[in-house]
Amino acid sequence: MLRPFRNKNLHFGFILLFAYFGYVTANHCNFNVKLKQVLKNQGFHRNISYGIVFNTDDDNCWLYKDCVVGLDQTLPHGVYANPDELSTLRRLKKLNAVPKTRINTEMPAEHSYPTTTYITERIKDCKVHVWLPVHARYHLATPGGGMARNTIGPPKLYLRCPDQRLDMCNKAATPVTFLCNGSSKEKCSWKELPYTLLTDTLVWNIPIGNMEHYHAISVGTALVIAIGSLYLIKAIHEHKLVTMPFNPYTSLHN
Ligand SMILES: *[C@@H]1O[C@H](CO)[C@@H](O)[C@H](O)[C@H]1NC(C)=O
Ligand SMILES: *[C@@H]1O[C@H](CO)[C@@H](O)[C@H](O)[C@H]1NC(C)=O
């Protein structure tokens, strides 16, 4: 009598367990992340702004409490983030962003490589808003000048929560280890999340110096110097001619 009853109990337990996993994977692992990436301001100094929303349904926001988003943004060789500026922003607690790769701020675009910056921010009410100050590198002048097209791709999005809350979600994704944030050397385990990009890929056209203007300026400068020099030589020569007969030394030597 006891045995079938036990089995039934066990079955019921399994059903509950499956239902629970089903519930968690069906409802909570569907992160449904949406990201907007916008390039603000004009000129050589701009601001990439990121708006990220987790789910659309506010009931699930408890799931992300104290979780942190990490963006991994690669910038093309014509654009850079200034490490000193990022360090100041971290100190002022305005923005937690840190270069992943070495960034040389002096190099022209032609001698630079793409660089990557991490940006981290805590999720609040299912939302995250971060930004990144970016600058255009100057381009070496070319014949005709024109514009250099810089395409800023979408960032990689990572998530990290303080406990094992989301471990059963996104199981296929292998955790990646990198800095917890820009303020400490400590490393954390992150999981990459897929998302829907709601905006177009950012394109920043940066003006290039025109070499023909350069040539015009150089030729002009050379002409002025040449004419000036000739005039000076002529003046010295005339002076010599004038002074020679009266100079006792030159007369003696001749
Ligand atoms: C960049 O834009 C954000 C808003 O999206 C703003 O909070 C921040 O102050 C801006 N930074 C600069 C340097 O303009
Ligand atoms: C950065 O991460 C460390 C390690 O997890 C943590 O102790 C510190 O509070 C974090 N700092 C900020 C500004 O988030």
UniProtKB/TrEMBL annotation:
<comment type="similarity">
    <text>Belongs to the PIGX family.</text>
</comment>
<keyword id="KW-1133">Transmembrane helix</keyword>
<comment type="function">
    <text>Stabilizing subunit of the glycosylphosphatidylinositol-mannosyltransferase I complex which catalyzes the transfer of the first mannose, via an alpha-1,4 bond from a dolichol-phosphate-mannose (Dol-P-Man) to the glucosaminyl acyl phosphatidylinositol (GlcN-(acyl)PI) intermediate to generate alpha-D-Man-(1-&gt;4)-alpha-D-GlcN-(1-&gt;6)-(1-radyl,2-acyl-sn-glycero-3-phospho)-2-acyl-inositol and participates in the sixth step of the glycosylphosphatidylinositol-anchor biosynthesis. Probably acts by stabilizing the mannosyltransferase PIGM.</text>
</comment>
<dbReference type="Pfam" id="PF08320">
    <property type="entry name" value="PIG-X"/>
</dbReference>
<keyword id="KW-0325">Glycoprotein</keyword>
<dbReference type="InterPro" id="IPR040039">
    <property type="entry name" value="PIGX"/>
</dbReference>
<keyword id="KW-0812">Transmembrane</keyword>
<dbReference type="InterPro" id="IPR013233">
    <property type="entry name" value="PIG-X/PBN1"/>
</dbReference>
<protein>
    <recommendedName>
        <fullName>Phosphatidylinositol-glycan biosynthesis class X protein</fullName>
    </recommendedName>
</protein>
<keyword id="KW-0337">GPI-anchor biosynthesis</keyword>
<comment type="pathway">
    <text>Glycolipid biosynthesis; glycosylphosphatidylinositol-anchor biosynthesis.</text>
</comment>
<dbReference type="GO" id="GO:0005789">
    <property type="term" value="C:endoplasmic reticulum membrane"/>
</dbReference>
<keyword id="KW-0472">Membrane</keyword>
<dbReference type="GO" id="GO:0006506">
    <property type="term" value="P:GPI anchor biosynthetic process"/>
</dbReference>
<keyword id="KW-0256">Endoplasmic reticulum</keyword>
<feature type="transmembrane region" description="Helical">
    <location>
        <begin position="214"/>
        <end position="233"/>
    </location>
</feature>
<feature type="signal peptide">
    <location>
        <begin position="1"/>
        <end position="26"/>
    </location>
</feature>
<keyword id="KW-0732">Signal</keyword>
